[in-house]
From TrEMBL:
Reactions catalysed, as given in the entry: K(+)(in) + H(+)(in) = K(+)(out) + H(+)(out)
Species annotation: Chromobacterium alticapitis
PANTHER family, alphabetized: LOW AFFINITY POTASSIUM TRANSPORT SYSTEM PROTEIN KUP, OSMOTIC STRESS POTASSIUM TRANSPORTER
Role: Transport of potassium into the cell. Likely operates as a K(+):H(+) symporter.
Domain K+ potassium transporter integral membrane: 25-478
A molecular function GO annotation: potassium ion transmembrane transporter activity
Encoding gene, per UniProt annotation: trkD
Domain of life per record: Bacteria
The protein's name in its UniProt record: Probable potassium transport system protein Kup
GO cellular component: plasma membrane
Domain K+ potassium transporter C-terminal stretches: 490-640
């Protein structure tokens, strides 16, 4: 009993020591995780009462719409993401690709038809996030800057140019790294949440009758009263959920507990008060439905509020830009995207990365979107389709994980995932109706990225299968070398191979053309695991005979391969001593796929896109950090 008391005291002491660290992480999570969710009150509620699909701001409709907003936040964020999906982590990491990696395992490229279907579905969800990455900075900053025309109509002409200038500056400082840019992320969002909570509470104090919206029956009666028009307005309601995916995707940066603490401690109460306050304002002043957020702000506070809103939307935009960088990096590591240049902007935080090409493409696309739409309400109409598509796909993948890996019974999968998917589907159908109003934009961007990622994945599958069919069993090669010796030259030859079985094609081509081998031949395979980071020993070595050894190095999809580091460690394990740089050559194979004359049109198109991406991806020499003057590339033309 005394031991139990002592252990309990130690645990309590540990919790006290961890409390300040958890609080700091929760503050940081406010900035990175909740930027997009936190700035949605700027434009979400007004969309329900304006535009081609808006309903009249009658008292019953205001109460009904606000009820839908409140319960969407509770069910889809608090229940779906915080309670359910954050339990579906992959060793601490979250996000749609982490979910996909748990379903398919490490052999996604060699899996069967069902595996391919899950991969394509996951890629579709991931591709939609690129549409979000373009639209979120545009709609967030534009909606904040539109507060200027509320303060002084004479400033209306400066809203779009000011938005473009802020966005250009935001993308130009990305090379500095998110760590330096985001030092004030948490405090800015904390101030923002306190401000919107105070504004909402002030309006709620003046008209507490809006508290009827807490009763979900008002949301149900709203549908009965408005019929199809009420269903269509779900396309506006989903805007209050923009950024919910970040809760799950950013688990690895902060951990589940700080994210939950930030949500329940400040973000959720502030959002609820903000929407209740806007609803209270509209009950008294329905004519302000075109700009309810800024209409809550006292005249003396308009300019400071515009400044704070602009800072908050910059934070929200930065968070999503960082998420797109991270998503692309994961896609490359998992084999779903061509190699691109990745720069690490922090020596202490591996997750802080910068992708130059992607940054400038996002900048051009975002600025073009602002110049094309010019108003946040028009952009908001385009926003919901990408969000609802990603949310629905995430639910489907969770259902697959719960059934295939967790072995949930069918009734449990249907109850949890089925219920959540029914809500996702309702949001998605409502947003499909806004396709011509701008929903085509994120869908087009998403389909473009899906086509690229799908062609890359399909091309790699074809290439992997062909290489597997053509490779020679390693014991056959070793027997051939013993029976028919070839000239051996001093030094070490390292042959990179995608497969840890058999003899790599690049070695066979080298033997075929040069009829010579190094005294020491090392077959190196870099395996990407379905875990974020590999724990423990990552390098395994084995002598195969005839001076040939095999090295297998494992990496997680959040890590980057370092071939010189692997070789230095492997040399110790193989008792080779220190590798002499000038006596070590690295051999890379480059296969060029071409479609056979009788191939179908779809296959020819897939191979053509894959070959184009292959030609323009980042050099393997740079990606694997190989010494350029010690690399030999051998090409082969493969007809499929």
């Amino acid at each position: 009993m005394q031991a139990g008391i002592r252990n309990g005291a130690i645990a309590a002491s540990d919790r006290k020591r961890q409390a300040p660290q958890t609080a700091m992480l929760a503050l940081a999570a406010l900035g990175v995780v909740y930027g997009d969710l936190g700035t949605s009150p700027l434009y979400a509620l007004q969309e329900a009462f304006n535009g081609d699909h808006g309903v009249r701001p009658t008292p019953d409709n205001v109460v009904g719409v606000v009820s839908l907003f409140l319960w969407s936040l509770i069910l889809m964020v608090s229940v779906k993401y915080v309670l359910v999906l954050m339990r579906a982590d992959n060793k601490g990491e979250g996000g749609i690709l982490a979910l996909l990696a748990q379903i398919t395992g490490e052999k996604a490229e060699k899996g069967g038809r069902s595996t391919v279907l899950w991969v394509l579905l996951g890629l579709a969800g991931a591709a939609m996030l690129y549409g979000d990455g373009v639209i979120t900075p545009a709609v967030s900053v534009l909606s904040a800057m539109e507060g200027l025309q509320v303060a002084t109509p004479a400033l209306s002409a400066y809203v779009v140019p000011g938005t473009v200038a802020i966005l250009l500056l935001l993308f130009m400082v990305q090379p500095l790294g998110s760590g330096r840019v985001g030092v004030v992320f948490g405090p800015v969002l904390a101030a923002w949440f306190v401000a919107i909570a105070a504004l909402g509470a002030a309006q709620l104090w003046q008209n507490p009758s809006i508290l009827q919206a807490v009763n979900p029956l008002h949301g149900l009666s709203y549908f009965q009263r408005n019929g199809f028009a009420g269903f269509v307005s779900l396309g506006a309601v989903v805007l209050c959920l923009t950024g919910a995916e970040a809760l799950y995707a950013d688990m690895g940066h902060f951990g589940a507990r700080p994210i939950r603490l930030a949500w329940y401690g400040l973000a959720l109460p502030s959002l609820l008060l903000s929407y209740l306050g806007q609803g209270a304002l509209l009950l008294d002043h329905p004519h302000l439905s075109d700009r309810p957020f800024y209409s809550m702000v006292p005249e003396w506070g308009l300019y400071p509020m515009v400044a704070l809103a602009t800072l908050a939307t910059i934070v929200a935009s930065q968070a999503l830009i960082t998420a797109v960088f991270s998503l692309t990096h994961q896609s490359v590591q998992l084999g779903f995207f061509p190699r691109v240049q990745v720069l690490h902007t922090s020596g202490s935080h591996k997750g802080q990365i910068y992708l130059p090409l992607l940054n400038w493409l996002l900048m051009l696309a975002t600025v073009a979107v602002v110049l094309a739409f010019r108003q946040s309400d028009k952009l908001a109409a385009a926003f919901g389709l990408a969000v609802s598509t990603t949310m629905a796909i995430t639910t489907i993948l969770f259902a697959a994980l719960a059934r295939r890996r967790w072995h949930w019974p069918w009734w449990a999968v249907g109850l949890v995932a089925g219920g959540l998917f029914a809500i996702d589907l309702a949001f998605w159908l409502a947003n499909v109706l806004k396709f011509l109003d701008g929903g085509w934009l994120p869908l087009t961007l998403g389909l473009l990225m899906f086509a690229l990622m799908g062609c890359w994945f399909g091309g790699r599958r074809l290439q992997s299968k062909e290489a597997e069919d053509r490779q020679l069993p390693i014991d056959v090669l070793l027997s051939s070398l013993q029976m028919n010796p070839v000239a051996r030259i001093p030094g070490v030859g390292v042959f990179l191979s995608e497969s840890a079985d058999g003899a790599p094609l690049v070695l066979l081509h080298h033997l075929k053309h040069n009829q010579v081998l190094h005294e020491t031949v090392l077959l190196l395979t870099l395996q990407m695991q379905d875990t974020p980071r590999v724990q423990g020993e990552r390098v395994a070595v084995q002598w195969l005979g005839a001076g040939v050894g095999r090295i297998v190095a494992c990496y997680g999809y959040m890590e980057e391969p370092d071939v010189p580091g692997v070789m230095a460690h492997a040399a110790e394990l193989l008792n080779l001593g220190e590798l002499e740089p000038l006596a070590t050559s690295y051999y890379l194979g480059r296969q060029t796929l071409v479609a056979a004359p009788r191939s179908g049109r779809l296959k020819r198109w897939l191979i053509g896109v894959f070959s184009l991406l292959r030609q323009n991806e980042r050099s393997a020499t740079l990606y694997f950090r190989l010494p350029p003057n010690r690399v030999v590339e051998l090409g082969a033309r493969i007809e499929l």
